[in-house]
Every structure is written in C-alpha cells, then in structure tokens.
TrEMBL record:
<feature type="domain" description="Ketoreductase">
    <location>
        <begin position="15"/>
        <end position="194"/>
    </location>
</feature>
<dbReference type="InterPro" id="IPR020904">
    <property type="entry name" value="Sc_DH/Rdtase_CS"/>
</dbReference>
<dbReference type="GO" id="GO:0016491">
    <property type="term" value="F:oxidoreductase activity"/>
</dbReference>
<keyword id="KW-0560">Oxidoreductase</keyword>
<comment type="similarity">
    <text>Belongs to the short-chain dehydrogenases/reductases (SDR) family.</text>
</comment>
<dbReference type="InterPro" id="IPR002347">
    <property type="entry name" value="SDR_fam"/>
</dbReference>
<protein>
    <submittedName>
        <fullName>5-keto-D-gluconate-5-reductase</fullName>
    </submittedName>
</protein>
<dbReference type="InterPro" id="IPR057326">
    <property type="entry name" value="KR_dom"/>
</dbReference>
<dbReference type="Pfam" id="PF13561">
    <property type="entry name" value="adh_short_C2"/>
</dbReference>
<dbReference type="InterPro" id="IPR036291">
    <property type="entry name" value="NAD(P)-bd_dom_sf"/>
</dbReference>
C-alpha cells in the first residue's frame, strides 16, 4: 500500500467528532488520537471546568476543539446540545459513546436505583445520543458511530453485574443501530476494551490478588494502555471501515481468546 493510500484512508481531516466522557481516561485518549488524525473535537464531560480545561490543552497542542459538557443521563441536556450544534452548523460526523461508570458489589446487594444509574449511564445514554446523532446523519447519508463496550460485553465476573448487563446491551445496541442505519451510509460499530489502565480500575490495579488473577488470564500478561485503543478507533472512524458494520472489536491483549 502506498504511503498516500494508507494516510488518506485513515485521515479524519474535515470531520467533527463528539466523544462523550473525553475530558479524561479512554475517551480522552481516543479524542487525542482523532485530533492527531485531523478531526475537530467536541469534548464532553460532566464537569464544565474539567471539560474546558481539556479543550484548552487540545488547543494548546494546535488542535481544533470545543467544549460541550453534559451528563449523558440528562436527555434534555443532550437534546439541547444537538439543537446548539444545529444552530451553529456543527455536523457531528463521528460519535463515540464512551461515557460510563463502574459500580462493584455483589449483585444481590444492589438497589434498583443503583442498577438504574449504571444502566442509564452506560447503555441508555448511548441510545439517546446515538438517536440524536443519527437523526442528523441520516439526511446527510453518512456517519460513524462507535460505542465503547467491554470484555464484559461477552464475559462476566462477580461484583460487576449492572456494568456487565449494560455492556452486553452495548454489543447488541450496536447491531441494532447497524441494521437500521447502514442503508443511510452510517457505520455503527463497537470497541471492547480489555483491562485498561484507567482511573475506573485503580482499585483493581492496586489489588495484588486481582492482579495475579488477571495476569493469569491475559495472554499479553499486562494491562492495556488507553492509547492502545486509538488505532482501532481511528479505523472505525475513518474511510478504512466503510463496509464494517455491527461489529465489536476487542482490544484485550488476547483475553477473550484464552480458556
Ligand atoms: C472490572 C473492570 C472491567 C474493566 C473492563 C473490562 O471491574 O471488572 O472495571 O469492567 O473496566 O470493562 O473489559
């Protein structure tokens, strides 16, 4: 493949990407990767100050970025954000539904409200924002939707039941989006991160017993780095994947491949 071919295929220049939960963690890493590939970024987080600070860092690095803080569980805020995009002529070409929370305890001890909070944040938010984005992508005849799943989209472990249910839902919501929106030039896919070095997993990283178990389960024998998701994200966000739809690509160090 010539240098020009490989570069243009993965070029995001001229595209605008909204990445939820992109002021830190996996979303931040993906947003930074998109910016380096030429995209204009809409940075989202629940904390306006942290979101704006992230935007300033993107701009200081020479990238185009603006802030759009909202909680993905606040449907009114999501609808208002897209109304603002419409009013300002901002077309979201690429949506990454990354925002999510974790809550660990035995399933039998979860209150229904605690269950709902995880489902609302990790699954319903992706539906609401995906719907609002697709309403604008369909008339344009193009769009990229990337939902962030998990190894928990396929496998379960004790104490993360609501998260596992939500991430399993992400895997099939992605298929539902793909089958309804592919004819409109939209590719909807998911990325399933393995055990990544993020704030959400600090409690696990600092637990020797968990680490020993995890290293026995991962062929790569190490935690993944957030930047190791960027290549897959750019692939799914770019013209390199125009006939890929409904797939979940696992970036997990081989964990799902192992017995
Ligand atoms: C946990 C972790 C996992 C990872 C990741 C695995 O408590 O087991 O939080 O859920 O975050 O999602 O793919």
């Amino acid at each position: 493949m010539s240098e020009n071919m490989s570069t243009s295929l993965f070029d995001l220049s001229g595209k605008t990407a909204l990445v939820t939960g992109s002021s830190r963690g996996l979303g931040r890493a993906i947003a930074e990767g998109f910016a380096k590939a030429g995209a204009r970024l809409v940075i989202n987080g629940t904390d306006p100050a942290r979101t704006q600070a992230a935007v300033e860092e993107f701009r200081a690095a020479g990238h185009q970025a603006e802030a759009c803080p909202f909680n993905v569980t606040d449907e009114d805020a999501v609808v208002s954000a897209f109304a603002r995009f419409d009013a300002e002529g901002i077309a979201i070409d690429i949506l990454v539904n990354n925002a999510g929370i974790q809550h660990r305890k035995p399933l039998v001890e979860f209150t229904t409200d605690e269950w709902r909070r995880v489902i609302e944040t990790n699954l319903t938010g992706a539906f609401v924002i995906g719907r609002e984005a697709a309403k604008r992508m369909i008339p344009r005849g193009s769009g990229k939707i990337i939902n962030i799943g998990s190894l928990a989209s396929e496998l379960a472990r004790p104490t993360v039941g609501p998260y596992t249910a939500a991430k399993g839902g992400i895997r099939n919501l992605t298929k539902a989006m793909a089958v309804e929106w592919a004819a409109h030039g939209i590719q909807a896919n998911a990325i399933g991160p393995g055990y990544m070095l993020t704030d959400m997993n600090q409690a696990l990283m600092s637990n020797p017993d968990f680490n020993n178990w995890l290293m026995s389960r991962i062929p790569s024998k190490r935690w993944g780095r957030p930047d190791e998701l960027v290549g897959t994200a750019i692939f799914l966000a770019s013209d390199a994947s125009t006939y890929v739809n409904g797939q979940t690509i696992y970036v997990d160090g081989g964990m799902l491949a192992a017995m």
